[in-house]
Structures are given as structure tokens and as C-alpha cells.
Write a structure and sequence with these properties.
single chain; mainly alpha
């Protein structure tokens, strides 16, 4: 059989043309990639040429966020405005207020108060005569429990402008921190009369009424504050507090639920609901809420204390001992000052161990407690006879009989 070379050559050429089609697809892909890269470059150039947000826009946006209770975004935008202009006084005032209100929002936000004071202190050195900044500084001082300095700063502003709302509120709150409740009520009433639509003034009046034992008026005032800013979470905690003083469990529960509706992960609201459920002897609900607290905030000693206490009240002393031990351990690890520690974590832990007959744990807890409180000014005491806890005389001896507290 003869090979038809002309036909073979045609077949070869045909196959090469097919190979050319594949190359064309690769080329098309390369062109598409180049176009995509080029478009990305154009977008970056457009973004680079676009002017940054105006400082006033950022401050206005932060104010709008604050007024709808969105403190996180208010803080972000105010800080961005300060990055563009560190001397933007309006941004500093708004940022300090947002930080202070956020500091009351959950269990781990207390440091915001110190940040607010640091912020106003730094800027007031450059602008010592600005009345709005001085009023914001007074507001930060009282929030950080420096009532004398706060009152002095607020009075200086009011001497120049008796109608300055934030200065009047700061003075009222400074009196409240100092325990001068009648003076606080006088100043907060004046603040509300001059600025009835000012949330801070209504809140200050609620605090003053509460400190004076007029909880019904406190409820009315804090509800007025809520009507002005219905998404400000700290107001609901205060609403619940006044309701509890009146024995209105339903309103307190509703207020805490409102917090969770606004912030589904709020830990402090869950702890309050645990405490409330315990008060109502709703044991299962209390355990559920407190367990949720320890899951979301495993380094918060208060959650472990409340969970351990609830188990103790239910008679589950082994679980109580375990959770209370976690509470005491966290406080030592975090170097919380002894006077500020929740000493019940040691005392109830020891009681649970004693009930269970766990002498080694009881003696260890008792010795730790007494060594810890030996040189501290603690009002209450926890002492056993010199030979140690009853029923544990054969265990390791307790330390010398020194007064401690629980």
C-alpha cells in the first residue's frame, strides 16, 4: 500500500491549525487578564484622586451615629476625624461623650472612661479657654470619679455661660458622685428646665432622683431620656435598676431584654438576668443565663461567682466549688486589689468544700483567704478555731488565727 504523502501533509497542516486555535484561547485569556489589571489600576487611581471625607462630614456622621445609639460607629468616625485634624475640638467632645456612654454598656468597657479623660486632658492643655471642651472635660472627670475637679471645671464654665447644658449636667453628676444628693438634684432640675430635650440632662435628673430615693420620678426621667435616644443601651440598665428598687420585676426584665434586642451578645445584661432569675428562684433560667456569661466572658470573675452561687443555692456543692474556685483564681491572676475582690468566692467555696467533706480543698482555700486578707482592711471575717476547720483536724493545719473577711 502506497502512502499518499500529499494527503498526509494536509492532515499535518490541519492538526497544526487546530493547535493554533488553542493558542488563540490563551491569548484571549491574557488580554482579558490585562484588561482586568488595567481596570483595577484605573479604579485605584480614581480612589487615590478622590478627596478624603471632609472633617465636618465625619463629625456630623459621628453625631448622627451617637444620636441613634450607635456608639461604636460614632467612636470610629470621631477618631477618623481626629486623625485628619488632631485639634478638631468638636470631634474630641463627641468622642469623649461616646466613650463614656459606651463604658457603661458592657462588662469589659470600663477602660473607655479613662480614655475619654486622657483625650480631654490632652487637648485642654492646648485650648484651656474653650468652654465646650472644658465642659466635656468636667463630664469625663465625674465619670472617672473625680467629683471635686469635675465640679470646679463645670463651675468655671457656668460662671461664663449659666445656660451651658453639658457643664450643668457635669456639675449635677459631680455632686452625685460626691454624695451631695440634694445639690445634684437641684442642678439636674435646672439642666432639664433649660434643656428639656437633652438626653444627658434627663439622665442626670434620673440619677439624682434615684440617689434621693424617689424611684418613681427616676423612672419617669430615664424614660424621658430613652424617648430622646431609644437605642442608648446604658439607659436601659438604669431603667432596670430603678424598676428593681420599686419591686417592678417585669419592667426590669423588659429593660434587660431591650438591651439584648439592641446588642444580642451583651454579657452584662445576661448576668443581670441571671441575678434576676435567681431572685425569682427560677433556677434553670438562672443557670442558663450565667452559663452563657461564662461562655462569652470566661475571664470575667463575676460570671463564675454568680454561677457558683446559683449552684450553691441549688445544693449542687461540687459544681459550686468548681465555679467559685475559677472565680477566686481569676481575681488572683488578674491582680485585682484585695479590697475590690469578690471575697465570697473564697468563703462560699470553702463552705461547699466543708459540706462535701473535702478537707484538703477547704484548708487550702481557708489558708489562701487568710494569707490574702491578713494585712487588708476588710470589714467581715472568716475564722475557724486554732486547730482548723471542724472535721478537718487531721488535714494540713490552718495558718495562725488572723482576722480576715468574706
Amino acid at each position: 500500500m502506497r502512502i499518499k504523502r500529499n494527503q498526509s501533509r494536509l492532515s499535518f497542516r490541519h492538526r497544526r491549525r487546530r493547535g493554533g486555535c488553542m493558542s488563540l484561547a490563551v491569548i484571549i485569556g491574557l488580554i482579558a487578564g490585562i484588561l482586568l489589571i488595567s481596570w483595577s489600576w484605573v479604579e485605584r487611581r480614581i480612589t487615590a484622586l478622590s478627596p478624603p471625607p471632609d472633617e465636618s462630614d465625619l463629625v456630623n456622621g459621628a453625631l448622627e451615629a451617637f444620636e441613634r445609639g450607635d456608639l461604636d460607629n460614632a467612636i470610629v468616625m470621631a477618631r477618623e476625624a481626629l486623625v485628619n485634624n488632631p485639634s478638631q475640638i468638636d470631634a474630641v467632645i463627641l468622642l469623649s461623650r461616646a466613650l463614656i456612654y459606651r463604658s457603661y454598656q458592657d462588662y469589659d468597657t470600663e477602660s473607655d472612661r479613662a480614655a475619654a479623660l486622657e483625650l480631654t486632658t490632652e487637648l485642654i492643655q492646648r485650648y484651656p479657654t474653650n468652654p465646650d471642651l472644658r465642659a466635656a472635660h468636667a463630664f469625663a472627670l465625674q465619670a472617672n470619679r473625680q467629683p471635686a475637679a469635675a465640679a470646679d471645671a463645670a463651675r468655671r464654665v457656668l460662671e461664663e455661660n449659666p445656660d451651658h447644658g453639658l457643664a450643668r449636667v457635669s456639675l449635677a453628676l459631680a455632686y452625685a458622685v460626691a454624695g451631695s444628693n440634694e445639690f445634684a438634684l437641684r442642678e439636674s432640675l435646672q439642666a432639664v428646665r433649660a434643656h428639656p430635650s437633652m438626653m444627658d440632662a434627663q439622665r442626670a435628673l434620673a440619677i439624682s432622683y434615684g440617689d434621693n430615693g424617689n424611684y418613681e420620678s427616676a423612672v419617669h426621667s430615664v424614660e424621658s431620656a430613652i424617648s430622646l435616644n431609644g437605642r442608648m443601651i446604658p439607659l436601659y440598665f438604669e431603667r432596670a435598676l430603678y424598676a428593681l428598687q420599686l419591686g417592678d420585676i417585669d419592667s426590669a426584665t423588659y429593660a434587660y431584654m431591650q438591651v439584648l434586642a439592641l446588642d444580642s451578645e451583651n454579657v452584662k445584661a445576661r448576668l443581670r438576668l441571671c441575678e434576676l432569675s435567681s431572685l425569682l428562684r427560677e433556677r434553670d433560667a438562672a443557670i442558663d443565663y450565667c452559663t452563657a456569661v461564662t461562655e462569652r466572658a470566661p475571664r470575667w470573675a463575676d460570671g463564675w461567682y454568680q454561677l457558683g452561687r446559683e449552684y450553691f443555692l441549688q445544693g449542687n456543692f461540687e459544681a459550686a466549688q468548681t465555679n467559685l474556685h475559677q472565680c477566686s483564681t481569676l481575681q488572683v491572676m488578674q491582680e485585682i486589689p484585695i479590697e475590690e475582690r469578690r471575697l465570697e468566692c473564697w468563703y462560699l467555696q470553702g463552705q461547699a468544700a466543708e459540706i462535701r467533706g473535702d478537707c484538703p480543698a477547704l484548708v487550702a482555700t481557708y489558708n489562701e483567704f487568710r494569707a490574702m486578707t491578713a494585712n487588708s482592711d476588710i470589714a467581715q471575717t472568716w475564722t475557724y478555731p486554732p486547730e482548723g476547720p471542724p472535721g478537718c483536724t487531721n488535714s494540713a493545719p490552718a495558718t495562725s488565727n488572723q482576722t480576715g473577711g468574706s
